[in-house]
């Protein structure tokens, strides 16, 4: 099966080779401190008995799964701890296709590039549903595209790259569409702690055997390198998901899971609120500078990203490289996220140099 390698690595490598200082705004790597309790959990693990250095349970540490289950209001047996949200989404998409109820995955356009890549890798067929100018997804449009060929509807809320947040009514209707077409709703909620609108609603709020929710601690705890995520499966699908997980990974990292468990148990809501406020301030700073540059842009309701469009400067890879060389700012080409925003550029605001990057863009395009 042929599939395209996402452009993220190519852009980051180009920026690293540049002959000038470059503000990196390509990847969603948080630049703030993880919870203090996470570092403490790692230190405690270093002094543990040798038994703690061996394989953990394949589906994840029991105490971590129990903590996740309690927080998400689900049964522990539905929870599989994964190698980040990336594996969680892979398992969810595989589960949808393995049901033999269609081979088509409905994706939004614009789309996070790893979704179509995984679809092709798994032998499925992607079909795209357009979103509104503000990134919102109209369930009626999804229903028009859904059919007996639909294996799953895959959504990301808060959304990468649009910043759209889907409310409770939207999520309920998406689950209903999945049920009506004997499909699954796959809801990737990795940015759930970064909702600036107050409207975010998890698909777990809808009781259904036709939805899978994936998430990760990568963004919320600023630990993308730890690779600790999870998926919540319907009871009928969880055993197959555990088997696939075991065959692919054997098990996840025991020290990373133990540290995450400690952080979950000992970190209060202020940690998450402070980082959410930080990101909201960066959005305001960056978009103000885009105003100065005369750009059109999206104001995200959640997540880490801003899409921007500059006159006579389409969001191609060539123009991204030109921006690196001439302005010293590295973003992502809009055409990496599908056809709907191919004239746009996407910027990740997870850098303390947001204001500097914004000034460089304003000066370059003014």
From TrEMBL:
Cofactor(s) for this UniProt protein: pyridoxal 5'-phosphate
Domain Aminotransferase class I/classII large stretches: 21-360
Matches recorded under CDD domains: AAT_like
Protein keywords: Aminotransferase, Pyridoxal phosphate, Transferase
Entry annotated with the keyword Transferase: yes
Highest taxon above the source species: Archaea
InterPro entries reported in the protein's UniProt record: Aminotransferase_I/II_large, AspAT/PAT-like, NHTrfase_class1_PyrdxlP-BS, PyrdxlP-dep_Trfase, PyrdxlP-dep_Trfase_major
Enzyme Commission no: 2.6.1.-
GO molecular function, one term: transaminase activity
GO BP: amino acid metabolic process
Family to which this protein belongs: Belongs to the class-I pyridoxal-phosphate-dependent aminotransferase family.
Self-association and partners: Homodimer.
PANTHER family: ASPARTATE AMINOTRANSFERASE, ASPARTATE AMINOTRANSFERASE-RELATED
Protein name, as recorded: Aminotransferase
């Amino acid at each position: 099966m042929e599939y395209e390698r996402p452009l993220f690595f190519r852009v980051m490598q180009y920026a690293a080779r540049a002959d000038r200082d470059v503000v990196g705004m390509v990847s969603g790597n948080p630049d703030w401190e993880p919870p203090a309790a996470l570092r403490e959990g790692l230190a405690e693990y270093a002094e543990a008995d040798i038994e703690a250095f061996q394989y953990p349970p394949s589906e994840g540490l029991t105490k971590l799964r129990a903590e996740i289950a309690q927080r998400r209001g689900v049964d522990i047996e539905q929870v599989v701890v994964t190698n980040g949200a990336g594996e969680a989404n892979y398992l969810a998409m595989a589960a949808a296709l393995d049901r033999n109820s269609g081979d088509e995955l409905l994706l939004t356009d614009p789309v996070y590039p790893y979704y179509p890549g995984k679809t092709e890798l798994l032998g499925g067929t992607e079909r795209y549903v357009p979103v509104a100018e503000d990134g919102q997804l109209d369930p009626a449009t999804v229903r028009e595209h859904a059919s007996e060929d639909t294996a799953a509807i895959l959504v990301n809320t808060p959304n990468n790259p649009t910043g759209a947040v889907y409310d409770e009514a939207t999520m309920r209707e998406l689950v209903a569409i999945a049920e009506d077409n004997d499909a699954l709703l796959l809801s990737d909620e990795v940015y759930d702690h970064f909702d600036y609108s107050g409207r975010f609603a998890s698909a777990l709020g809808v009781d259904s055997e036709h939805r899978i929710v994936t998430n990760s601690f990568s963004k919320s705890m600023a630990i993308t390198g730890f690779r600790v995520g999870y998926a919540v499966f319907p009871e009928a699908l969880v055993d197959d998901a555990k088997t696939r997980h075991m065959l692919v990974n054997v098990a996840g990292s025991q020290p990373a899971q133990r540290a995450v468990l400690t952080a979950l148990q000992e970190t209060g809501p202020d940690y998450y609120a402070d980082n959410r406020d930080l990101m909201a301030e960066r959005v305001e700073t960056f978009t103000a500078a885009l105003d100065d540059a005369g750009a059109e842009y999206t104001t995200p309701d959640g997540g880490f990203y801003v899409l921007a469009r500059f006159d006579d400067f389409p969001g191609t890879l060539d123009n991204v490289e030109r921006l690196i060389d001439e302005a010293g700012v590295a973003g992502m080409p809009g055409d990496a996220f599908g056809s709907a925003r191919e004239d746009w550029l996407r910027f990740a605001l997870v850098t303390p140099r947001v204001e500097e990057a914004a000034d460089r863009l304003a000066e370059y395009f003014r």
